[in-house]
Amino acid sequence: xxxxxxxxxxxxxxxxxxxxxxxxDRLALNQFYGExxxxxxxxxxxxxxxxxxxxxxxxxADLRAKDPLLATTQNAALVAWLQSV
Length: 85
Fold this sequence. Notes:
This protein has helices at 8-19, 26-46, 52-59, 61-66, 68-84. The protein is built from five helices and no strands. The chain starts with 7 loop residues before the first helix and ends with a helix. By secondary structure, the chain is an all-alpha fold.
């Protein structure tokens, strides 16, 4: 049986899916963080090197929900990284 390898393309897909999730209320944030933990586990297991913006973006959804400037800044930085890989 073939094993599925988690690579940068899979990470990009997962981050893009997370980007589409709402984060406006507690239930939505809980769902986001549950998915984010799964992504980070996959990154760790695959020993992928990711830039700090990825881990910050995954960890700070609650801050982005409260601060539109932070949301704009982090989202732009994440999109720039996604487009560069």
